[in-house]
Amino acid sequence: MSQSVAEVAPPSTPESRKAAVLKSKRQHISRAEGWRRRGPLLPALIFMIVVTQIPFVFTLYYSTQSWNLVRPGSQKFNGLNNYVDVFKDSQFRSVALNTVIMIVGTVIISVFLGLLLALLLDRKFLGRGIVRTLLITPFLVTPVAAALIWKTTMFDPVFGLINFVLKPFGVGQVDWISKYPLPAVMADLVWQWTPFMMLLILAGLQSMPRDILEAARVDGAGSFALFRELTLPHLRRFIELGAVLGAVYLVNTFDAVYMMTSGGPGVASSNLPYYIYQRAFLGFDIGQAAAMGVVTVVATIIISTLALRLIFKSFSGTEEAA
């Protein structure tokens, strides 16, 4: 037995001990180097945990409480009853549907318009830099200011530009925000998010190899065939990425709804953030509002994680194929 162990175990020599010491030192240096690289990120990580994760833990706690601020001493443990009440709430379901319509409609229209503008700006023409700067401007306007512009300048029933432009076509003094509250809010959001989609798609266009397009043109392919067979498949990843990022940010839309419609009439233009705000700060129902916030956050995380995984697989798969 001792002979077999001796045959298997390598002899301990000064060279092997020295190699083991050097290996241990290299591992220690690599760990120290890793911490040295991560060190500058620690303050940002701590700040993010304090600002986002600790409040979310408190939200989880409040979502299990029955607590209304207008009834002192009403706070008590309620289990999961708040979540049951949330899914039974017909207004919550209506607001969730409004949120989905707002996000999907805004993203689709913004991507379509952004694609058209990106194709335009990908061509060389006089004043392209000025046009590109002007088209980016809406994305730089603060959401509150943009909502006020659309409410007072564009949609005003008496002095609005939309009624002024449509007046020769027989359109009278239409109160667009009262009659069409959800499309009015979506118009403001499309105006703001189209430049973002345009920039992302334009970056994809400019990353496309020109020699492939030239070879296809030499082979006799027309403009529509080039776009359908080469340009659009190349832009698919950028369009998907823009759609996911836009949807994640649009879930948090509060400014436009608050400034333009205040969620009305009824809940016709209300979305989840504004409805949660109403429950918490107008209805003072902390438990219900916290439960709604948790449901919204969890649903957003699940959907965005699945979408981002698909997009990252698309990017990595293309890179490996290249």
From TrEMBL:
**Stated name of the protein:** Sugar ABC transporter permease
The record's section on PANTHER family has: BLR7065 PROTEIN, INTEGRAL MEMBRANE SUGAR TRANSPORT PROTEIN
Question: What is the similarity comment for this entry?
Answer: Belongs to the binding-protein-dependent transport system permease family.
Q: Which Gene3D superfamilies match?
A: MetI-like
Domain annotation ABC transmembrane type-1: ranges = 96-307
Residues passing through the membrane, by range: 41-62, 95-121, 133-150, 190-208, 238-260, 280-308
Question: Where found, per UniProt?
Answer: Cell membrane
Organism this protein belongs to: Antrihabitans stalactiti
Instruction: Provide the topology term for how it sits in the membrane.
Output: Multi-pass membrane protein
| Record's keyword annotation contains Ubl conjugation | no
Q: Highest taxon of the source?
A: Bacteria
**Which Gene Ontology biological process is one annotated for this entry?**
transmembrane transport
Q: Which GO terms describe its cellular component?
A: plasma membrane
Keyword list (alphabetical) reads: Cell membrane, Membrane, Transmembrane, Transmembrane helix, Transport
What PROSITE patterns does UniProt report for this protein, alphabetically?
ABC_TM1 (PS50928)
